[in-house]
Amino acid sequence: MNLEELRTEIDAIDDTLVNAFAQRMDVVARVSQAKKEQGLPTLDPARERAKLADIASKLPPELAQYGYALWSMLFEISRGYQNAMNPQPSALRKEIEGAMASTPNLFPPSATVACQGVEGAYSQLACEKLFKHPQVMYFGSFESVFSAIENGFCDYGVLPLENSTAGSVKQIYDLMLRHSSFKIVRSTRLKIDHNLVAKKGTKLEDIKEIFSHPQAISQCSAYLEKLGKDVKITPCENTAAAAEAVAQSDRKDVAAIASHSCVALYGLERLAADIQDRSNNYTRFICISKKLEIYPGADKTSLMVVLPHRPGSLYQILARFYALGLNLIKLESRPLPDREFEFMFYFDLETSVYSDEFIRMVDDLSAVCEEFQYLGSYSEVI
Ligand SMILES: C=C(O[C@@H]1C=C(C(=O)O)C=C[C@H]1O)C(=O)O
């Protein structure tokens, strides 16, 4: 049989499938109505499991897995159709609508803002981009930034989330998992130009040890490699703290990788500028608050979902986003420390909070995921 004939055969089968699909969706619509009358939720995991087992038993063994994937997708589509026909405003939707109504139109120009590090930290520069007049308070660790928000000590907190050269700041993702009472209300992108700074009079060839934050060290790896093996690289809590330590040290053979603002701040000298591997080196910072605030124009949404470690669990969520036409701009996974074989997935989605897809996603999520956390909807200051 030639290709042409085989395709004619496929077309005939697809015609049957198209009709069967339309018929199935028609019944699904009636199922939805019946559920509405009986006050039942859209998702029925036991029914889906039973159906998958039945389908697998009816297919030749070599097709069972493909059948599993196809019917999982059909269930997704069927639930999406039911939710669209019979919208069940979720508790989360009500919370979001409440926050949209009560959040002021303008982002506050001034507020007390918690940052990790000391003066001159890149987080401080991010704060100045996010707020016109921030009253910055510095904390020793990222964890204390979360605590400062949660206990009401500061209005907002600013944290680095990812860098275009070195990737995600994994510590922040792990902390987001441990802290549940915070929301993301804004984000910003900061161009990061690293400098090698030292006490006045220090010569580059005398440097024996360089201090900085591991992210900055990683972003300048090519430069540091060129300096040779004799230069010791010592990671520390923060780039500005490294600059401060160098300024306070009696040694004349130490330097720090830090922002340019640290030069004047700590009376240092710049030995080298723009030492990062890539000139387009950006870090994304998030601004967190204790309560949900959704400012006008919010077009990014962040979520954290806990998924069982079994085939298809991530796929089901992604299929949902795909079915709603949502653009996924970030996906990060972290193992759950106290729950073996389970993972946390962090998603950033691009969609306006005023769009229908957004509302549908919010209503659908509770139906699709066993456990998820809505982290907020916000816009990014460029
Ligand atoms: C159609 C139903 O709703 C959902 C979709 C299913 C399907 O498409 O077969 C099965 C179970 C439910 O999660 C139903 O409950 O039967």
TrEMBL record:
GO MF annotation terms: chorismate mutase activity; prephenate dehydratase activity
SUPFAM superfamilies: ACT-like (SSF55021), Chorismate mutase II (SSF48600), Periplasmic binding protein-like II (SSF53850)
Keyword hit for Isomerase: yes
Pfam family, one: PDT
Reaction catalyzed: chorismate = prephenate; prephenate + H(+) = 3-phenylpyruvate + CO2 + H2O
Alphabetized SMART domains for the sequence: CM_2
Keywords: Amino-acid biosynthesis, Aromatic amino acid biosynthesis, Cytoplasm, Isomerase, Lyase, Multifunctional enzyme, Phenylalanine biosynthesis
GO cellular component: cytoplasm
Sequence ranges assigned to domain Chorismate mutase in this UniProt record: 1-86
Coiled coil: none
Residues annotated as domain ACT: 302-382
Domain Prephenate dehydratase: 112-290
Swiss-Prot/TrEMBL site (Essential for prephenate dehydratase activity) positions: 283
CDD domains per UniProt: ACT_CM-PDT, PBP2_Ct-PDT_like
InterPro entries (UniProt xref): ACT-like_dom_sf, ACT_dom, Chor_mutase/pphenate_deHydtase, Chorismate_II_sf, CM_dom_sf, CM_II_prokaryot, Preph_deHydtase, Preph_deHydtase_CS
Enzyme nomenclature, EC number: 4.2.1.51
Single GO biological process annotation from the record: L-phenylalanine biosynthetic process
Described purpose of this protein according to its UniProt entry: Catalyzes the Claisen rearrangement of chorismate to prephenate and the decarboxylation/dehydration of prephenate to phenylpyruvate.
Name this protein carries in UniProt: Bifunctional chorismate mutase/prephenate dehydratase
Species, as recorded: Evtepia gabavorous
